[in-house]
Every structure is written in C-alpha cells, then in structure tokens.
Amino acid sequence: MIKIGSNFLSLKDTSIHDFIQTCYDLRLDCVDFHQRAFESNDPAYLGSIKALCLKYGLPIGYLGVSGLFHGTSDERAEHASNAKEAVDLAATLGSPIIRLFCAKMPETNGDGDPLWPTMIAGYQEVADYAATKGIQIGLQNHPVTGDEMVAIREGVDRENFNFIMDTGQWTGSPGSAPRGETDPAHDIYKYMEQTVNDAMYIRCKFYDNESGTEQWLDYNRIAGIIKGANYNGCISIVYEGEHEDRVEMVRLASEQLRSLLN
C-alpha cells in the first residue's frame, strides 16, 4: 500500500513537535524533515522526536539536505560534510534515506575545473559514507531533466544511490521559474516516466489546490505513472502555495492523492 505523508516545510512557522501532531491529526502515514528543522543534535532532543513519531505511528521517511556539488572545492567539501552529518542524523532517528539535490549544471565549477567529475565524486563520497551507516541516498530533480537524472545515477554507480522523484521541480515545470508556467519544450511527465521505476520516494508538489484538485499539475496523469510502475513506497506532500491555511491544503492534497491512488 502506498503511504502518504507530508514534508515539514509544507507548514510554515511551526515547531517540529506541532508538525508531527498535525500529521497525526490528519491521519497521514509518514513524515519527512529537512535537516534544518532540528534545533540541535542533542540525544535527548532527538530522542523526544523519535519517541513522538513512534507514539503516533509515523515513520520518518527521509531527511533533506540543501546544497549542491557545484562551486569551489571548499564549497563542495562543506556540502559533503553537511550531507554526512545528515547521514548520522538519519541513522539516529531511524530514517532510511537522506535527500540530495541536483540542479541546472554550469559549464565549470567555481574554481574553473570541469563540473562532471567532481560532482560525481561528491555524490560517491557521501554514498560510500552512508553505506557504512546503512543509509540510502535519494537524488532529487531540482530542477533537471530525466536524462540528466539517469546520467548522474549511472555515473555514481552505487547501490545505495537512487532517486527521490519530485513531481513539480523538473526543468520546465510550473514549480520552477517562471512560477505557474510550463515550458512546452520539456515534457515533465516523460521525465517522471523515466525515473519513477528507480524512485525510492516521491514528493508530490501542490501549488493551487484550494478547490480540492491541484491546478498546476495533472495528478490524474501522475497517478497513472505511479500506479503503472507498481510503486509501493512513500509519497510526501509538499505544499508550496500561498493559501494561509496550509494545514487545510495538506488535508485536501492527501484526499486527492488517496482518491487517485487507492
């Protein structure tokens, strides 16, 4: 059975404990967090979060990490260090995955050296460290094309390195600039078809769903892609709209997804 949860960043200006409570009240199946959601790495504090998730039957699906393996060597080293800290945090909390970004790629790094070899090496470094902790790496399209996602995965070539597919963050999607517009030069649904079979997690973006049906993305079509792949993992609702009642928008999103996927 597909599990439907929410990302912490869907609710603004809320505590991590209140977020967990809200997900329980909405009868969601799982939760996922960003690395910066946590106030500290204090064992007692992290234990209280883990205990609350266990109490409410809400597994922690993944932890998100910001930053890219682009830029200067110092910037890439800092990102690798942050990602490894997230691996340790995931291991403590019992989350099986950390999320790493990929994005539009410059021709060279900040030091002027070729981009591709150092980017791949950065992903490999974190994946190898994560493997020692039993943690998986999920690469999120943010934003790239399906071909680029596949090429990165093949270049990294690690068993614990696969995809977190984001429905709204492809190159040309309405979630990328300019907001609300789709670039006809990019078939974002084809990109989803390219990557869904290797997705260990799916992020479902919602931007305009006050009516109960998301307007920017075709979730009837997306549901068909997900079901066609026999996907049986977790789905994270990520609300990025402007409605003041974000809890209600998450509730509506979960109802739409359950209706389409169950």
Summarize the structure in words.
With 262 residues, the protein is an alpha/beta fold. The protein has two domains: 1-58, no CATH class; 64-215, Divalent-metal-dependent TIM barrel enzymes (TIM Barrel), CATH 3.20.20. The protein has eight helices and eight strands; from the N terminus they run βαβαβαβαβαβαβαβα. It has helices at residues 16-25, 43-55, 73-93, 115-133, 146-156, 188-195, 219-228, 246-261, and strands at residues 3-7, 30-34, 60-64, 97-102, 136-141, 161-166, 199-206, 234-239. The protein has an eight-stranded parallel beta barrel with strand order 1-2-3-4-5-6-7-8, surrounded by four helices. β5, α5 (146-156) and β6 form a beta-alpha-beta unit. α5 packs parallel to α6 (188-195) and α7 crosses α8. The longest helix has 21 residues, at 73-93. The termini are close together. 41% of the residues are buried. The model has no long low-confidence stretch (mean pLDDT 94).
In short:
This protein has 262 residues and is of the alpha/beta class. Helices cover 41% and strands 18% of the residues.
What is the CATH homologous superfamily assignment of the largest domain?
Divalent-metal-dependent TIM barrel enzymes
Relative strand content: 15-25%
CATH fold group of the largest domain: TIM Barrel
Low-confidence segments, ≥5 residues, pLDDT <50?
none
Helix content: 40-55%
What's the tally of helices?
Answer: 8
Helices and strands, in order, run as: EHEHEHEHEHEHEHEH
Count all strands and give the number.
Answer: 8
